[in-house]
Each structure stands twice: as C-alpha cells, then as structure tokens.
Amino acid sequence: MELTRRDAAAALAAVGATGGVAVAVRRVTDGADDGRGATDATDGDEGEAPPSEATVRGSMAAVAAVLYPSEVEGVEAFVDRFLDGRLDGSAHAEGVRTAVGELDDAARSWYDAPVAALSESERDRLLREVGADVADEDPEGTLAERVRYYVVNELLLALYASPTGGELVGLENPQGHPGGTESYRRGPR
Amino acid sequence: MSAGEPDRSPVTNADVCVVGAGPAGALVADRLAADHEVVVLDAGPRFDPADRLARQERAIRPSYDRPDVWDVGGERDAHANSGERVYPLNHARVKGVGGSTLHWQGMVMRLHEDDFNSETERGVGADWPIDYADLRPYYAAAERELGVAGASDNPYAPPREEPHPMPAFEPSYSDSLFAEACEELGIDMHSVPNARNSEAYDGRSACVGYGTCQPVCPAGAKYDATVHIERAEEQGATVIDCAAVGRLEHDADRVTAAAYATPDGEEHRQTADAFVVACGGVETPRLLLLSESDRYPDGLANSSGTVGKFFMDHLFAGVGGTLDEPTRQNHVGFYTSACDQFYDEADESVGPFKLEFFNYAGPSPVEQALTGDDWGDALLDRLRDGYGTHVAMGGLVEQLPRADSYVGLDPDRTDDRGNPVPEIHWSVGDRALRTIERANEVQRSVLEALGADIEWVAGPDATGPAYHHMGTTRMSADPDAGVVDADCRTHDLDNCWIASSAVFPTSGAMNPTLTIAALALRAADDVRERLTHTL
Ligand SMILES: Cc1cc2nc3c(=O)[nH]c(=O)nc-3n(C[C@H](O)[C@H](O)[C@H](O)COP(=O)(O)OP(=O)(O)OC[C@H]3O[C@@H](n4cnc5c(N)ncnc54)[C@H](O)[C@@H]3O)c2cc1C
Ligand code: SF4
After folding, report:
1. Å from B191 to nearest chain A CA?
2. 26-65 in chain A: CB under 8 A from chain B
3. Which domain holds residue A85?
4. Which site among A21, A161, B74, B299 is 20 to 30 Å from B503 CA-CA?
5. pLDDT tens digit string along B460-477?
6. Of all helices (H) and strands (E), which one includes residue B397?
7. Which residues, listed in sequence order, are joined to residue A159 by a DSSP beta bridge?
C-alpha cells in the first residue's frame, strides 16, 4: 500500500506540528519546498555535533523502513513530508534531533556507520540493543525511553494516524485523523 | 505585573463577579454581559487554541495520563480521599477557561419529569423545589446555546416544544447490528442528543471525525465553554485567568468581595453587587467552607449544615465483547444510539438508568501501536488481531444523595496557595449497586442476542464514576434543608448565586451539563431581575 502526500498531511493534521500548528499545516498543504537542502542520508556528520536536518531526515526514514510493515511503500517521502511539519524549531523538534543524534552515535560505535548506512536487519538489531523495543516512551527518560518517544513512537504515530496506516488495520478513519462523519456509518467492504 | 503577563487586577465598578469559567459561569457571564459590568475569575489558565493538536497527541501517547492533557494535577489540584471508594478527582475536571467541557464527551440529555420529584414518585431521594415544566423553556434555550444535534424519535424522553437546533447524527454501522438484537428482545433504540455539530453551527465547524472528542476536539465541533466566554468578552466582560478565589468576603447577608491570588504572588479583591459561584461540584462547596467566619462558623451560606453534603456522581455500568464479524469501531469518539426504555421503571429499590451503544468499543489501533515490543509486520498482525470485532454497551445509573457521601476540607494538607485541599468521601449505596446489576442484565441480554463472546463486565465491583459532581450545595425551598433556593440564590446571602450541578437535590441518571446550563440561564435571569430591582 502506497503512502501518499495526503497521508503525511493527515498524519500532521492528527498530531500537529509540535510548536506551531498553523505553520505546519501551511507548509504541508502548500507543498512548498522551503529551501532546505537535498536529503542526503550520509552527509558525513561525525560524532558529537548535533546532526544536520538532512541527517535527521535520513535516519528517521531509515528507521521507518524497519518499523513500518513490508506492504507499505513510499516511506521515505512520507517521513520527509511528515518531518516538514515536525522539525519546526520547537522543543519537541530538538528532542527528535537529539535522540536521532544519540542513536547515530550508538550505530557508529557498534557498527562503524550511521543508522542510514546500516542494513535493515542491523537497524532492527540496533533499535533492540538500545532497548527501544521494551522501553516505555518518555521524553525525559533514558536513551531507550527517549528513542522510543522521539523516534519509534514518533514514526508509528505518523503511520497509524494516517488514512493508509488506518486502512492497513481495517480502519480508514483512525483516531486523530479528521476523516469525516461518513465512515462510521459504512458497513464492511 | 511582569512583562508579557496580562493585567489581572480587579475591575472597578463591577456589577457581577462570576467565579469559574466552565459552562455554568460562561453562560451566566454571556447572558448578563450586554447590560452589566461582568468579571469572570478562573483558577486555571486560558489555553491557547493553537495547542489543541498537541494536546490531542498527549491523549494518544502512552506517556501522558488523561489529567496531563489539560495540565491538571500538582499542588494546585491536590485533594484527599477518605471514602469507601477512591474518587479520581483529577480525571474528572479541568481547570481553566472553558472548564471541564474542554475534556467532556458532550452528551446532553434533559432530566426526566420524575427526576424532579424522586421522593414523591419513587419514594427515595429529595424532590427539587422546581419541576420539569419550570425548566423546560430553559432547556430549549440551553440546547440553542450549546448547539445540540438531536431528533424527536425517543418515546421515553420528556415532552419538548421544538426540534433540536441541529439534526441528530445518523446511527452507526454497529448501531444497525445492535438494532437487530434489540428488536428481537423488544428493546427500543433511539438517537441521542450530542453537543456536537452535525452541521456548521454558530460559526463553528461541523464534526470532522477526529475521534478524540474526549479529551480534546481539535475542530471545535464539540461544544466547550470557551464559546460563551468569548461571546461574553465581545460584549465587554472581563475574564481573568490564573485567579484562584480563596475566599468570599462577606457581612451577614451579602458577599462583598472575592479574594483571589495571581501567579505573581499578588492578592486582589474583586468587589461586585452580585456574585455567582460556578466552580463545579467540588470546588464550590470547598470555597464556601474556606470562607467561614464568626457569622458563618461552619462555612459561608451553610446555615443549613448541608454545604458539601450529599456528594453524588453517576456510576458506569457496561458489558463488552467480540463478534465474529467486523463492527467498524473507533471512527468517531461519540455514540449515536441509546435506550431510555428502563429509565422510568425506577422505584425505591432500583434507580433510573440509561443505556448507550458504543461506537468506540475495543482498543484504538493508534494507541496500541505505541506500546508493545514489536514493529514491522509483527506489529501490524497484532493490530489486525486486536481491531475490528469489538462491541460494547455502556450506561449510567443514579446514585442517591446520602449524608455519608460528602466533600469536606482536609485540615492536614494545603494547596499551592496554602488553602486546605478538598477531601472527597464518596459512598454510593446499595440501590446504585442494584441498579448497576439491573443495567448489566439488560446489556448482557443484548450482547447475547447479538451472539457476542462477552469479555468484560463493568458491574458493581468494577464500576467507576462518570465525572459528574453533584449535590454538594443542594437546592431546597426550606432554608434549613438546603443551600440555595429555587432560583439558585443562597438562602443566607442576598447577592450570591450558585450555578452548578452542586445544586441538584437528586441527580437522575442523565449527564448533567444540559441541566447545569438550563439552571445557569435561569439563575442569570434572577440575577438580572434583582440587580434591577433590589440589589
Ligand atoms: C471526561 C469527562 C467527560 C464528561 N462527559 C460529559 C458528558 O458527556 N455530558 C455531560 O453532561 N457532562 C459531562 N462531563 C461533565 C461536565 O464536564 C461538567 O458537568 C461541566 O463541565 C460542569 O460545568 P461547571 O461550569 O459547573 O464546572 P466546570 O466545567 O468544572 O468549571 C469550573 C471552573 O471553575 C474554576 N474554579 C474552580 N475553583 C475555583 C476557584 N476557587 N476560583 C476560581 N475559579 C475556580 C475551574 O478552574 C473551572 O474552570 C464530563 C466530564 C469529564 C471530566
Ligand atoms: S469526532 Fe469528536 S473530536 Fe472529532 S471533530 Fe467530531 S467532535 Fe471533534
């Protein structure tokens, strides 16, 4: 199932941009390319310095490929659009950036490469080694809890609050998505 | 005043001071603001509408509890529990401009005629000093104010003079499954009134199906009391947020000022000719108890000794399970069909109850996706297994007013302002528990006729409150038996009214807010009348 631009807009409409809702909605519906550079997942950030926006986007897309079910397509563009609204200079955006940076640091020290350069099975292992699979999300918690909050659940929320994500489960108007007042009346197809 | 902070100093020459900016206070303020100088004080903040999506995210994300969605909790909202059942007070209210309607579900029914005459008709409880007929025009006005979507297809509802302002929401797909089972059993289903726009109304959008109505509607399609606060402000009212009133200053027969503290640590006094206390069913009696004096040693307006007594809530009864076919739940966050058929069978031993057919049975896949140690295809499999075939019925039952169920002050604990916190002592009584059993019996029969595997029952042991705080400053024609008169004016003080479900002598089993709104409009008329002629 293909994730569309509409899905990203819907996911944002569901959870909102973090600090500036109006900004996010405008950016997404305009489809405006707001002048950020091309996405290059491996643009050579090293270690401690906060990762560039392009790195954050690349790493998030790489993690999403692991988290999203195999029948979903168009993951990278979807994540990119979603992050257009989420990486908005807010404290939440900073949390995402920091958590991705730390995840990349872990990837470098354990696998000698940033997240985006790992194979899918290595990314899966990395997330589990960090402890993000069993951690409860917590924006102020341990690394595992923060990766769960800012990376894993951020991406799962984006998918499953979008119409395509909902439809995968059989619910085309999932909670958080303003899908109108027709669908609750319709019977199964 | 620090930079960027709004001016929170008192208004000079105020005619009316309203304490509390929930629906009760907001409606009174709106009703009086055109011809009077009105000031509204609220303990909580003015929330930024732009944050609603972020609050919705909190509602979905597992690291936030429900009270976190609207910043409830901490020292400001500390309280004690001393009754046989724990009362989760901070799940049951919001403090701030809009009050608890920011979080509410928005189901708005009128009480039934017998609810006003419980002692006479059912042999238990206390009669109200007014009848359904007295409130009927105010109910219609309240439905217009809140914007209610409803239909006249309910044969058990009390008589009404005009249609609802908006058409009812159509029944859901799962309602159609229930309908077959109910028909087999001779149980009637009908629409249910929603304070939620089925079409654009009053400058607010129609419902767009976010499905998170409780605890936040990002679209503004669900009514909340910011609607009337804004309207009151447009007419010149002043609304001061983060202004917790700690004491009502008074002489023998009048309130003279509301003393409030602001975040900068300043203490202020708001004087006015008339005062309307609209702090909800827990903070209203608390404020009166905090305002004790030599003249009123047991609490202000408490010559009857009933302030804080007879604390009631509605109790939840429910049954849920799964079918072997899709049920299409969780598209919207409200229900569209109900059954009031058993309501007026109430007598001494079993109370009134109403039944609801859920459109949101079973887990929400989005929320489920955020917990668990799986992802990818395994997570999707789990979500598919968990979603799709759930059904459930809910219901509310009446709890009688009882002297051993009350709100008091805890002398050992103080809030962020140094005031003793409310102590909730909640006892529900056997009749309520029997009523839950009776409701469960009907619910079970419906689910069985539907062929469901029953997976859970919220019966007498697993019940909980519906977050409706009632009874704690009861209305009575007799000054020795209640706090306010039939117009919601305190017996003791000539210029003080209470707008709240705190005045309900007996509660019925219908969600209270439409009745709160009707009483608030009626009280506002009395305030206006007396301001013109006697105050
Ligand atoms: C989860 C939930 C679901 C609900 N669903 C429904 C429903 O479907 N139908 C229904 O009819 N009802 C429902 N209710 C109940 C409904 O929200 C209340 O009945 C209604 O909001 C009460 O209105 P009010 O104005 O009396 O009090 P509130 O809305 O509670 O407002 C009181 C205000 O007073 C302020 N205040 C308190 N103390 C002070 C003080 N000392 N000084 C200054 N200000 C003070 C508070 O900050 C608050 O803003 C629900 C409630 C909850 C929590
Ligand atoms: S379903 Fe609820 S939350 Fe969504 S728009 Fe309608 S009223 Fe608002």
Report:
1. 14
2. none
3. 5-15+47-175
4. B74
5. 999 999 999 999 999 999
6. strand B390-397
7. none
